[in-house]
Each structure stands twice: as C-alpha cells, then as structure tokens.
C-alpha cells in the first residue's frame, strides 16, 4: 500500500475515533455533568500523551517559550469542547457536528485577517458558501415552517469560532515551540482548570464508568495521534477534504445509537457546509 493510501486510511480512522468519542460523550451526558466529562477528556488525554512522548523520546519537554499562549490555546480548546458537549445533551449528533464544521471556514477568514495569509477568490467563495450552510443548518424559521431553532444549535457555532482561534494559535506556536511541547500543553491548562471545578459537579462513577471516562481521553488522544501520522504520509490537499466524511459517520452514529434521523434541512445544511469546507481546504493556485 502506497504512503498516500496509508495516510488516507489513518485519517479516516482518526475521524471514526472522534465520532466514537462524541457518541460516548452524548451517552454519558445523561449521567454526568459536562464539566466532569471534560475533566476526564483532558486529564486522560494528557496522561496518555505524556506517557507516549516519554517512552518514544525519553523525555518530557514541558518548558515553553510562550507559556501564556499555550495556556490560552488549551483553554480555548476546553471552552470549545464544553460548548460542543453541552450541545450534544440537547440536539442530534449530526446537527452539532455539521455546525461545528464551520471551523475550517472561519479559520481561513481569521488567517487572512490575523496572519496576513494570502487567500484566493476560490477560498473566499468557500468561506461564503460555508457560512450559507451554517445558516441553513441553524434551521431558521423560514425553512422549518415557522418553528424556531433549538437554542442549543448556537453552541456548536460557538465551538467553531473558538476552535478557529485555537487553530490560529496552533499555527503561531508552531514557529515558537517544539511540537512535543505543544502536544503536552494542549490538555495541561484545561486539565488543571476542569480539576478545580470538580467539587461543584462531581458524581462518583462506578468502576465500569471509570473505563468509559478514561476512554474519552484515550480516544481523543489516539485520534489526534493518527492525524499527525496521516499528514506525515499524505498531503494536506488530499486529506483535508476527507475530514467532511466525519459528517457521514456522525449521522450514522446518531441514527443507530440515538435514533436521530436527519431531515432535509439538516442534510442540506451539512452538504453546503461540506462544499464550502472542501473549497477552502484545497490550496490556491497562483500564476507565476
């Protein structure tokens, strides 16, 4: 199997793990407060990442040249996860995933404004199409016969905005710190912050649920690890559009596990968002 095909397989596997994690979060919100689930997500992800880096490299490069930016980045990820997990307690998995996929579109817009990256007309068209898809996915009354959208539909949009800023900070930190340092700091501040609020939300889990809580962090960590391996074997222009296959897995998981079958409005919004996302994911071609 060629390196590109291996990269594609690793990428698709990572997306499947993310859907499994989100499905597990949605299931566990019936028994635990979202902050407790986020604590487990970041704590076990941090421990897993530290163990792997220690075993593979023989060290733990904690020291950062920009500790405040690292902490801010970690907290942005925690806040985006908090909003998304809260949304999963109220709306279908596929709907939340679709709106959350506005993040790549917003990242391109922020990169043009904040990082002064050159963005061609086709990618700007993708931004516009993606935002149109978000509008559809939010289910405005004109598309639902006057029925107002569920209030929780706004939460994945907040997730997309926060994650877009998170992505921009990731790009900036890539020129400052060792990638291993950034990986370790990804969950560090979030794990500390969520640990501090546990007395307010803690529900003692039975032994079986401890395994599920640990799985949240391990699934997330493994998924991000597979993404790193995938992008080392295949170009981003090939892999990035495949990210939107996660919408298919989320729709299937929502239908099979929770009985949430998407309607025409949800499918249309997801399709338009995916189209915009594919346009912004493909690199611009500049004439010499």
Automatic annotation (TrEMBL):
Cross-referenced InterPro entries: EamA_dom, EmrE-like
Tree of life domain: Bacteria
EamA domain mapped to chain residues: 7-137, 151-280
A GO CC term assigned to this protein in UniProt: membrane
Regions that span the bilayer: 37-60, 72-91, 97-115, 124-143, 149-169, 181-198, 210-231, 238-258, 264-282
Pfam families listed in its UniProt record: EamA
Keyword Zinc in annotation: no
This protein's UniProt keywords: Membrane, Transmembrane, Transmembrane helix
Matches recorded under PANTHER family: ACYL-MALONYL CONDENSING ENZYME-RELATED, BLR2811 PROTEIN
Name of the molecule in the record: EamA domain-containing protein
């Amino acid at each position: 199997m060629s390196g590109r095909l291996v990269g594609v397989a690793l990428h698709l596997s990572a997306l499947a793990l993310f859907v499994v994690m989100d499905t597990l979060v949605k299931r566990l919100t019936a028994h635990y407060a979202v902050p407790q689930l986020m604590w487990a997500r970041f704590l076990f992800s941090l421990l897993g990442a530290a163990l792997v880096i220690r075993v593979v490299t023989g060290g733990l490069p904690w020291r950062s040249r920009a500790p405040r930016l690292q902490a801010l980045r970690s907290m942005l990820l925690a806040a985006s996860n908090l909003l998304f997990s809260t949304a999963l307690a109220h709306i279908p998995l596929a709907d939340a995933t679709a709106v959350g996929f506005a993040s790549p579109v917003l990242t391109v817009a922020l990169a043009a404004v904040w990082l002064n990256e050159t963005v061609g007309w086709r990618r700007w068209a993708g931004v516009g199409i993606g935002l149109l898809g978000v509008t559809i996915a939010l289910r405005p009354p004109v598309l639902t016969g006057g029925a107002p959208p569920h209030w929780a539909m706004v939460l994945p949009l907040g997730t997309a905005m926060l994650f877009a800023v998170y992505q921009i900070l990731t790009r900036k930190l890539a020129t400052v710190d060792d990638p291993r340092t950034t990986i370790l700091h990804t969950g560090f501040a979030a794990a500390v912050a969520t640990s501090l609020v546990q007395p307010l939300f803690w529900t003692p889990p039975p032994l079986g649920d401890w395994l599920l809580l640990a799985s949240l962090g391990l699934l997330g960590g493994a998924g991000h690890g597979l993404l790193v391996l995938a992008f080392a074997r295949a170009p981003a222009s090939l892999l990035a559009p495949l990210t939107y296959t996660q919408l298919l897995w989320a729709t299937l998981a929502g239908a099979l596990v929770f009985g949430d079958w998407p309607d025409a409005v949800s499918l249309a919004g997801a399709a338009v968002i995916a189209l915009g996302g594919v346009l912004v994911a493909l690199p611009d071609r500049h004439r010499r």
